[in-house]
Amino acid sequence: MNASSPFSKPPVGQTGQQEEEISLSELLAQLLAKKFWILGATLAAGIVGAFIGQLAPNEFQASSLVQIERRSDTVTLPAELVGELLRGGESSSSQLATEIHIIRSSLILSPVVEALGLDIQVSPMEAPVIGSILARRNLPMSSVFDRVIPSEYIRAGEVLRVARLEWPPGQARGELQLRVLGEDQVSITLANGDVIEADWRGPIALPGGGMVEIEALRAGVGRVFSIRLNESRAAVNSIASKLDIRERGSSGIVDFRLRAPEAERSVTIVNAVVAAYQEHNLRRRSAQIDQSIAFIEGQLPELRADLRRASTELSEYRRTQDRRELSLTTQELLAQTVTLETAIEDISFRREQLLLRLTPNHPDYLALQAEEDRLRLRLADLRNLLSDVPEAEQELARLTQKVERARQLELQLVNRIEQLRILRASTIGNIFVLESADRGVLVGPDRRQPIFIGLGIGFVLSALGVFLINFFRRGIEDARVLEELGLALFATVSKSRDLNNAKPYDAIYAMAIEAPRDMVVEALRGLRTGLRFSLAAAPSKTLMITSCAPADGKSFISLNLAIVSAQAGARVLLIDGDMRRGFLRQYFGLNRKAPGLSDVLSGQTPAHEAILHFENSGLDFMCNGIFPPNPAELLASEALPRLLDSLGQHYDLVIIDAPPVLAVADPGIIGQHVGMSLLVIRHLVTTRTELQSVKKTLENVGVSVSGCVLNQFDQSASRYGAYGAKYGYYYGGYRYKYD
Fold first, then answer.
1. Is the pLDDT of residue 43 over 90?
2. For 485, which DSSP code?
3. All domains of the chain, ordered by start, with CATH?
4. Rounded distance between C-alpha atoms, residue 539 and residue 500, angstroms
5. Total-model pTM
6. In terms of Cα–Cα distance, which of 297, 254, 273, 334 is closest to 111?
């Protein structure tokens, strides 16, 4: 892990609290260093979120307030009016959860679907991605959009409403495609590809017996709509999923809310649902009464037939017995018997009615059973008394009793039917509408929420991106890594835009001459001052400048350091020590055949002939010479130290631009004969591992690195930017410029 990472372990002796504070300050510094990038990414994500928030269609909500009374489903009247038949006991009140399931069921919603035609699905053709926006908003420069966006796609304010759709019998349901041809003309494309053109203001007949009736059409020419007839169950499920039913505490006051893409449609649907629920509730409360009436009406024909037969038998018996009459005692016993039999029949009828609602073990049913048993015992006693009457009078009493009992039962049932009809007419439901839905309110979607979500995601992802890039970055950030490796930082040379894509033969390559007031040159002047004191204590006034790898900028540093040193009045010699790929000769306008270091070391050219003086820079220059086949062997010969000793007697400073250490062995050989060795490090490119390898390679041959130059320092690309992460204060915002 990079030593500069805020996730590194704390040093020995450092407390956890201190490490936490340092880590937080470093993380904050990393974010502040990339604040503009993070801000841009966050704003871009917010814009994307705002766009996404506009894609969803509008949602309107209509609300109706309803009171649901908690009372028994059975409507009762006083016993004086209807007797004990319909009194019964109070039933437990229905729980609201049960009622909600009933309201959401097909029992309530299917009539709503059928009445409003909600099983007819009309879908306009929308433009990709921005179709919902076009359907809701009139965009600026609408004439331009009309020319760019195809005419098939719907625009704001356009609508198609289908009042009725009858699919041809025997044909599988499919999809119809309607296209607007003109003010009144439309074309309908069937599932099999056939096209029908007709006037939409009247019913449009479909082949096979189907029909389409359009209620309203407001759309431009060319617009396309798809029409589909869904299953009733699917439409019911769609309404149930959008219907919200909530009770206010336990007050019995219930809010019916429904969401729909159109305000008017939401109002119509929620009112229809409440009305359907009211009607169902009223029917449910009247169902028991209707059942009782039907049962009694089913018993009357048989009872009247029994009455006719009994009357006929009584008349025939009287005729055969010379119109015999009953005694007063017998008439009294007969009246009591008829009364008891009528009461027993009434109890039996009531028991049958209770069995429709209760089980045989219910207390009410058992009470009626006990009462019937008591009356039957009393009836048996009366019949025993009648057995003492003469046989002829007994038969007459029996027939008379039969007629009276049938007549009493008929009268009782007829009265009971009238009472039940009165009861049904007076029945009212327990659902009362307190406030009907009158308008749909725009409730969604929340178009601001995606903006905040986008801003949050943009900030988090961009911050994580910064942390991840910094975490995996292995390039040298600042002097801390150098200090850990035991290397001294002599200078930090900033990155210059003027040097972008600059070639060695370009004049700007010698920035010390072309741009002497640039901060890069100022940094090299500071390096020159530091080296003056260091070389004073060195064995010789020779300086090797090398790097870890190619393209780190060692040749640029060598040239410009030599120029600023010469500008200070020193006698400076610059040697291109790279006899393999050196290119400093290009700046001085020399060709590859110009004599140089390789020729001097091989003895083919005297040193004074290979050294050229350039007035514009004020320094002497020795190029690398003709590329030899054995550069390492030439450098390892005795010619190199003799050359450097002789040059040291004539110059105040000799700078050797050596090849990269990790590429060839030449720097290790040159470094053994110079007074100081300077290592050029490229900011954010040279890695810690490369530095360790270079240091170990040079130490193995007895060469120590005197110091380092951090080249092409890019403050904006740095992990901490202009903020000092180690010490927690702002230092990089300082700028100095003079004329």
1. yes
2. T
3. 16-56+447-471 (no CATH), 59-280 (no CATH), 282-433 (no CATH), 488-720 (3.40.50.300)
4. 38
5. 0.59
6. 273
